[in-house]
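For concreteness, we quote verbatim a single protein encoded this way:
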Amino acid sequence: MPDADALIVERMRRAGAVTIGKTNVPEFGAGSQTFNRVFGPTRNPYDPGKTCGGSSGGAAVALAARMIPVADGSDTGGSLRNPAAFCNVIGFRPSPGRVPTVHGDPWSDLSTAGPMARTVDDLALLFSVLAGPDPRVPNCLSDAGSSFLPVEPVDLAKLRIAVTEDFGGLPVEPAIRDAIGELRAALADAGATVVDAAPDLADARRIFHILRATGFRRRFGPMTDEQKAELKDSIRWNLEAGLELTLADYDWVYPARTALIARVAAFFDNVDLLIGPTTQVQPFDLQTDWPREVDGKRMSTYIEWMESCSWITVTCCPALSLPAGFRNGLPVGAQLVAPLRADGFLLRAAKAIEALTGHGARVPEPAS
C-alpha cells in the first residue's frame, strides 16, 4: 500500500472524484498484455478469450464494460493507447510535461500520465483536472487544465490530414489497414484534404530502446539476485538491455532524438493532423504473452510489435487512440497525432472524428 497519493490522484480527489479501486496491469506495467501472478489475466470485453492489451488493460476494460466513466494511467510505449484500441475506448498520451509527475523521475518524458474515457468530452473533463503545473516539478508546461474545456470540434473540411497505414513500413495486419483505409475515405467524404504520408521516423526504434532500457536499469538494477529471479522474462531482458548500454549509446541518443523531433515538426508544417493505426495487431489469444509474428514478420522482442505507438512516443507529440470500427468482431483503434504541444487541437479534432464515425457507441455483449 502506498504511503501517499500520486499527484494525479490528489488532483482528482480535490475535484470530487470518488476512487472505487485499482485496475489490473501487467507485472510492473511492462508489456501490452494484462496478466500477472497475483490477479491473473484481464479479458477483452468483446471476446473473453482475447487479451485487453495493456498496461492500463484493467482500466480500459472497466470503461468498456460501463463499470466506470473515466480512468487514468500512464503511457511509455502505448500503455494508454494500446488497451484503448483493444477495448474500443479512448486513451490519451498528452504532450510531455502537460501532466506533471512528482514521484519517480520528474525529468523523464518517456512515460506520461493521462486520461482514458469512452467519449472525448469525458476524456477532456478528466484531462482538465490532471493537467497543469506544479511547483515541485521542474519541467511541466504552464497551461492550466481548465483551458482545455469546453471541447469544440474542428471543421474537418478545413483540415489537411496525413493518413498512413504503417508509419513508413511497419508490419500491420490487413484488417487494421482496412479499418484505417475506411476512416480515410470517411474523412475525405467529410471534406477534409487527405494525403497519404508519414513523417521520417528513422532511428525511433533505437531511441526508444535506449531510453526505455535506461529506465529499467534504474528501476530494477538495484534489486538483489533473488528479487530479479522473481521477475518475468521480458522484464529481465529489458533490464539486461539497460545494463549493456554504453557511453556511446548515450552520446548518440539525444542528438538523434533532437533530429527526429525536428523532422516531425517540419512534417507538420504541411499537415494539421497525422492518423495511423494504434496497434499493428488486433487483440490476440489470452494465453499468448506477446505476438511473435505480425503480418508475416518475426518479432524479436516483447516491445517490437508495439512500435506504431512507441515510435510516436519519442517524437514528444500528443497522441490518442480513437475507436475506428470492428474487424472480425474485435475493435480497431486509430491513432491521432498532433504537432508538439497541440493537445487542445488534438482533442477538438478527435471530437469531430468521433461524431463522424460513432464507433465508440458499440457496447460489449453481456457475458452468458
